[in-house]
Amino acid sequence: MLNTLLDQIEIFHIMGTALDSTNTMKLDFSPNNKTLETIDLGNTDAFNTYVFGILEQSSKTYGIGGYFEHRAIYRRSEVFATNEEDFRDIHLGIDIWAKAGHPVFAPIDGNVHSFKNNVGFGNYGPTIILEHHIEGKSFYSLYGHLALSDLENLEVGQKIGKGELFCHLGPFPENGDWPPHLHFQLMWDMMGMVGDFPGVCSQRDMDKFQKICPDPNILIGFK
């Protein structure tokens, strides 16, 4: 459905430039990446060194990936802790890893639905959610792990035009204490939430969230 809605719309590059194999590489944070077992993921500086070491070695500016990826990195934080069968380790968005301070642009026109500093180790940190309306349909886009200053002077309902620079990748620890990256996610339904929305789910809830959260790559266009 979202493909059809966006067919006639020119989309602005969310990081200000096209993301492709010349400047971007996929990063694997699934249990298949055994290197993760050798890293103290609870130490954000060590985690940061790992992520940006890979990018530097590959001469890439951006790392990308994660839509519905089964991830091995969430045990670093109690934010995701539940009973084992409900442990939230399925990633609902796409992460774009880049240096702190990197600008983020609105891919299409929208309005500020809500914003919040979701504090806590491993949480989103500063978060902005935009609401979009196309041909009578509404959906939402979430931008997490931002700079705290991005929340200053924002107002609910504020128009954010396509191509507008409206936020930046935040540094740790203010970004939820992660290596700098953008968590970008789409939702058909906010489920009554304001300034926040689950970015990961349990395997038990995958079917539910696949219906709510379409693939964000439709607005990123990574090839």
Automatic annotation (TrEMBL):
InterPro entries: Cell_wall_metabolism_enzyme (IPR050570), Dup_hybrid_motif (IPR011055), M23ase_b-sheet_dom (IPR016047). Residues 90-188 form the M23ase beta-sheet core domain. It holds the Pfam family Peptidase_M23. Keywords: Signal. CDD domains: M23_peptidase. PANTHER family: L-ALA--D-GLU ENDOPEPTIDASE, PEPTIDASE-RELATED. This is M23ase beta-sheet core domain-containing protein. It comes from Belliella aquatica. The lineage of its organism: Bacteria, Pseudomonadati, Bacteroidota, Cytophagia, Cytophagales.
